[in-house]
């Protein structure tokens, strides 16, 4: 029943999902992602006064932005294991390093969006309290962007290596021609994303763009379009 539903409702219509059961590796991974998401929200003591409660609720703005990025990482991870159902020694190793880095990038990600939100508040209200409290001046914000993108680049590299490993097992997995094309497309798309993240690191630390170098991640979109055209599907 679930297989039939997957064919019609899941967001991966050109791929037969071979990972039909949730493994212990995926359970561990979901726990780590949940911890990272919790780290975004619970960065201090719980609110003890109404003013602190309001401040906590206001923080939903930067937290939501950071949450969206971590959720995209989780979705990429989820899609890989649903597509291939692999859990051999190499995948366990790559996945373990990936999970460590997910925890590593959680706090830098929160600091990035906290400082961005503080800058927006300052522009509209001239209140620099949030920026001063977090000590996120121009230089520190640039370093925060660089730290996150360095971690993100390695996470994306590890994901691409997982896809490369899956491609090497194409015959064993019984991948169709379209599935092989999608695997190659995804592998190279992630490698392109890694290059984009490295460009951001260099721009944030070596150019006057500083923290605004994070905007260069928009290059991810033309990167995805390019590899989509490079590896076309037979019925596309």
Structure description:
The chain has 236 residues and is an all-alpha fold. It has one domain. The protein has ten helices and no strands. It has helices at residues 2-9, 24-41, 50-58, 60-84, 89-125, 129-134, 138-168, 170-173, 177-206, 220-230.
Offer a quick outline of the entry.
Helix content is 76%, strand content 0%. With 236 residues, the chain is mainly α.
SSE topology:
Blueprint: H1 2-9, H2 24-41, H3 50-58, H4 60-84, H5 89-125, H6 129-134, H7 138-168, H8 170-173, H9 177-206, H10 220-230
Helix pairs in contact: 2-4, 2-5, 4-5, 4-7, 5-7, 7-9, 9-10
Features of the shown structure:
single chain, 236 residues, mainly alpha, 10 helices, 76% helix
The overall pLDDT average reads 85
Number of helices: 10
What is the alpha-carbon Rg in Å?
A: 20 Å
Task: Give the termini distance in whole angstroms.
Answer: 27 Å
The main pleated sheet reads as: none
What characteristic shape results from the CA principal axes? globular
For the secondary structure, the number of strands is: 0
The domain tally reads 1
Q: Give the structural class.
A: mainly alpha
Uncertain segments: none
């Amino acid at each position: 029943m679930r297989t039939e539903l997957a064919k019609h409702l899941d967001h991966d219509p050109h791929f037969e999902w071979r990972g039909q059961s949730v493994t212990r590796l995926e359970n561990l991974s979901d726990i780590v992602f949940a911890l990272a998401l919790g780290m975004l929200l619970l960065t201090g003591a719980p609110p003890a006064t109404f003013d602190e409660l309001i401040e906590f609720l206001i923080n939903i703005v930067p937290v939501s932005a950071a949450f969206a990025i971590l959720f995209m990482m989780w979705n990429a991870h989820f899609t890989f294991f649903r597509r291939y159902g692999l859990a051999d020694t190499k995948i366990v190793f790559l996945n373990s390093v990936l999970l460590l880095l997910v925890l590593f990038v959680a706090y830098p990600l929160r600091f990035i969006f906290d400082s961005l939100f503080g800058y927006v508040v300052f522009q509209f209200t001239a209140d620099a309290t949030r920026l001063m409290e977090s000590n996120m001046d121009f230089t520190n914000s640039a370093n925060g962007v660089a730290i996150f993108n360095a971690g993100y680049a390695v996470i994306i590299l590890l994901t691409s290596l997982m896809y490369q490993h899956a491609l090497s097992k194409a015959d064993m997995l019984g991948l169709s021609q379209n599935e092989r094309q999608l695997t190659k497309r995804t592998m190279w798309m992630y490698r392109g994303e890694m290059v984009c993240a490295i460009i951001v690191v260099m721009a944030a630390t070596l150019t006057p763009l500083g923290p605004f170098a994070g905007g260069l991640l928009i290059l991810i979109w033309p990167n995805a379009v390019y590899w989509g055209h490079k590896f076309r599907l037979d019925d596309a």
